[in-house]
Design a protein that fits this description.
Number of strands of chain B: 19
CATH architecture of chain A: 3-Layer(aba) Sandwich
CATH superfamily of chain A: P-loop containing nucleotide triphosphate hydrolases
Low-confidence stretches of chain B: none
CATH class of chain A: Alpha Beta
Number of domains of chain B: 3
Structural class of chain B: alpha+beta
Largest sheet of chain B: 5 strands, antiparallel
Helix content of chain B: 25-40%
Strand order of the largest sheet of chain A: 6-4-7-8-3-9-10-11
Shape of chain A: globular
Number of helices of chain B: 14
Mean pLDDT of chain A: 82
Distance between the termini of chain B: 70 Å
Strand content of chain B: 25-35%
Number of strands of chain A: 11
Largest sheet of chain A: 8 strands, mixed
Shape of chain B: elongated
CATH topology of chain A: Rossmann fold
Order of helices and strands of chain A: HEHEEHEEHEHEHEEEE
Oligomer: heterodimer
């Protein structure tokens, strides 16, 4: 290829089909190099909605976000958790490096209030990150969330069940998470730029891994069903 | 010295009309001798042909649906005091001129407000926000400035000589003298202050009394003019009578916003802030509805109060129509000064405002921060706190999700991957626990935090490694 063409292709406005897209909005590095390589801009999209789809809580979905949350908690802006399914546990969050002073939990009574809260938090621009566990998603609500994230230039993360994988969504990034032998298998369902076919395995820290070597794993069989 | 005089020429009307945006014809009447006549009316009434001085009965015959109110001197006094409180945002030296004037000494605070032009602009917009109209005039002597304002001359005069020339052309009727003196002056052909000054002083003093000459001398700055300054009350409570009972949140919001500049002025003067406000809505034959506004941090920003007020009013149901509102600051806190930013910050959003808005809609307890507590029992080792923050005790062997209460575990196919961690604690407060905690993996690959109760031998799930 001639050097003239090479220099033209360096121009950031030019996107080639085999590349990930460059984002104008900016991105937050995930802290996992394997994942960063696949994401447009090299991280979680700022000013956009990220959808995380999983069939079961507890496979490492929060551990995947922890490095970014820890870094964001050092800056201004809240880390808002809207309608979390369980109690976010302070000691573990602190151990992951999250500054608890920046963390705010909202537990709305109704689903409509939860969507409103998430949207307001994103739109206000006062949140570095918004994590929301919302049900009854529809096209309109999702689009409003995406627009709110654009307005507030925030990072919005929406946790949904894996069965929503086939639905249409205005989110800029959609990830499907599945447990893997040594971490978490992340399938990128949608990103800005070309599609990715193969899942990437991310080595999220394993619970209790420090002491695993000492004990053989007994099977818990004594428990009645 | 530089004095700013504010003459509220329609105060008797505005005490009734400022609480609403609607402009139905309104006339204020007062009994003078045996005759009740109109002393002020608004634009809508004037359009119907009503004018000042007309008999009340004639006015009522002219306009259908005319609201006639008796002049309320005490309400005017209260309004003037409220205006003096508001003026505290400009200068601590505020002097009342009952029934309808204020004098502000502003020479000492021009730099603070970045010049006279800026200060006048702020004062003008503030008066408008509160629903009043005023003539503003500045002069080097307090009485001179007041005469200018009363004459309707909106000028900022800074030299004494120039003030003298302008004053010389003003009519004697503006002077604060008994009617007999003013009549006498008219009879001898002295119509302006200049005419009075041209007369021989000793003759004028003998005929009309020394007080006339003294007043003119004070206006011209030849005599010292001692003023006593207004002392703001120790607590803030202002009420506003609405011209007609209202039900809608928007009308109430409008009325309450009329009071916010007064509160802001009060807080600026006192170097104070509030964390809670009360808006009491008065109903006929019913107890007041009291709406509370809470702020995440002490604040004195009227703009933020307005936003929260709108949210609060929009979400509350009023049992009946409201005929008056009262704005109260139950607790006034000292506010330490803060430095402004030299450079614009990238994130300009107001984080506290977001919390306040969420708390209004979701309830105070539904929005909280989390912190750690010094306890070995996992369920007691965290707490929800209204004020996010505090030192945290990290523990990397804890799950990111804790179940609100442990669930009995009947799944026989859990694989224990690490443990046990024994926790025995709480025998002193009745919440006794004796548990062995393990990390377990279920067949879907989810990592759980389970424990075996050492008393019953039952297994429970207590957390999830999210």
């Amino acid at each position: 290829m001639s050097t003239a063409l090479e220099s033209v292709l360096q121009y950031p406005g030019i996107w080639r089909g085999n590349q990930r897209a460059q984002t104008a909005e900016g991105a937050l590095p995930t802290g996992y190099a394997a994942l960063d390589d696949l994401l447009p801009g090299g991280g979680w999209p700022l000013g956009a909605l990220t959808e995380v789809l999983l069939s079961r809580q507890g496979i490492g979905e929060l551990r995947l976000l922890m490095p970014t949350l820890a870094r964001l908690s050092e800056a201004d802006g809240w880390l808002a958790w809207v309608a979390p399914p369980y109690v976010p546990y302070a000691a573990a969050l602190a151990a992951a490096g999250v500054n608890l002073e920046r963390l705010v939990v909202a537990k709305p009574q109704s689903e409509a209030d939860a969507w409103w809260t998430a949207e307001q938090a994103l739109r206000s621009g006062a949140c570095g990150a918004l994590l929301a566990w919302l049900r009854a998603a529809d096209e309109r609500r999702m689009r409003r969330m995406q627009l709110a994230a654009e307005t507030g230039h925030s990072w919005g993360v929406l946790f949904r069940h894996a069965r929503a994988a086939q639905d249409r969504s205005p989110a800029a990034l959609r990830l499907l998470l599945e447990p893997a032998v040594d971490g978490l298998a992340v399938t990128i369902l949608k990103r800005r730029g070309g599609p990715v076919s193969k899942p990437v395995v991310v080595g999220v820290p394993q619970a209790g891994v420090a002491r695993r070597a000492r004990r053989a794993a007994p099977v818990l069989a004594a428990v009645k069903v | 010295m530089l004095w700013l005089a504010l003459h509220f020429h329609s105060l008797s009307l505005e005490v009734f009309s400022r609480g609403t945006a609607a402009s139905d014809p309104l006339a204020i009447v007062e009994k003078q001798g045996s005759r009740t006549s109109v002393i002020a009316c608004n634009g809508a009434a004037a359009a119907c042909g009503i004018s000042v001085g007309m008999a009340a009965s004639a006015a009522q015959a002219l306009a259908d649906g005319l609201i006639v109110r008796k002049r309320d001197h005490s309400a005017e006094r209260d309004s003037l005091a409220g205006l003096a409180v508001w003026a505290g945002r400009f200068t601590p030296s505020v002097s009342l001129l009952p029934p309808d004037g204020l004098l502000l000494e502003i020479n000492t605070c021009l730099n603070l407000h970045r010049g006279l032009g800026n200060l006048l602009k702020q004062a003008r917009s503030g008066v408008g926000e509160m629903g009043y109209a005023a003539t503003l005039a500045c002069g080097p002597s307090s009485h001179g400035a007041w005469l200018l304002a009363k004459a309707g001359i909106e000028k900022a005069v800074r030299e004494q000589a120039r003030l003298g020339t302008i004053l010389a052309a003003l009519p004697v009727a503006l002077l604060d003298q008994p009617p007999a003196v003013l009549e006498g002056l008219e009879r001898i052909g002295a119509q302006t202050l200049g005419d009075c000054l041209r007369l021989p002083r000793d003759g004028v003093a003998r005929r009309f009394g020394q007080s006339l000459l003294d007043e003119i001398d004070r206006a011209l700055g030849r005599l010292p003019d001692a003023r006593s300054f207004f002392v703001p009350p120790a607590s803030f409570e202002r009420s506003l009578e609405l011209p007609a009972p209202v039900h809608g949140a928007e009308a109430l919001q409008f009325a309450a916003c009329r009071l916010l500049p007064e509160l802001e002025g009060y807080l600026v003067l006192r170097q104070a802030s509030v964390q809670e406000l009360e808006l009491a809505c008065r109903h006929e034959r019913r107890a007041d509805t009291v709406l509370k506004l809470g702020f995440a941090k002490p604040s004195r920003d009227a703009g933020r109060m307005q936003i929260l007020l709108r949210e609060t009013l929009g979400r509350s149901r009023l049992p009946a129509a409201v005929h008056a509102i009262v704005l109260r600051a139950p607790l006034v806190l000292p506010l330490s000064g803060s430095s402004g930013e030299l450079f614009r910050k990238t994130r300009e959003a107001d984080g506290d405002l977001l919390l306040e808005r969420l708390r209004i809609r979701l309830g105070k307890d539904a929005v909280y921060g989390i912190g750690t507590a010094a306890d070995h029992r996992p369920e007691h080792a965290w707490r929800a706190c209204l004020e996010p923050g505090g030192a945290a005790a990290a523990n990397r062997h804890r799950p990111l999700w804790l179940l609100p209460r442990p669930l009995p575990c009947h799944d026989g196919r859990l694989k224990l991957t690490s443990g046990p961690e024994r926790i025995e604690s709480g025998w002193w407060d009745g919440g006794d626990v004796a548990r062995d905690y393990y990390v377990a993996e279920d067949r879907n690959g989810a990592q759980l935090w389970v424990y075996c109760d050492r008393v019953s031998g039952e297994w429970y799930v207590h957390g999830i490694f999210g």
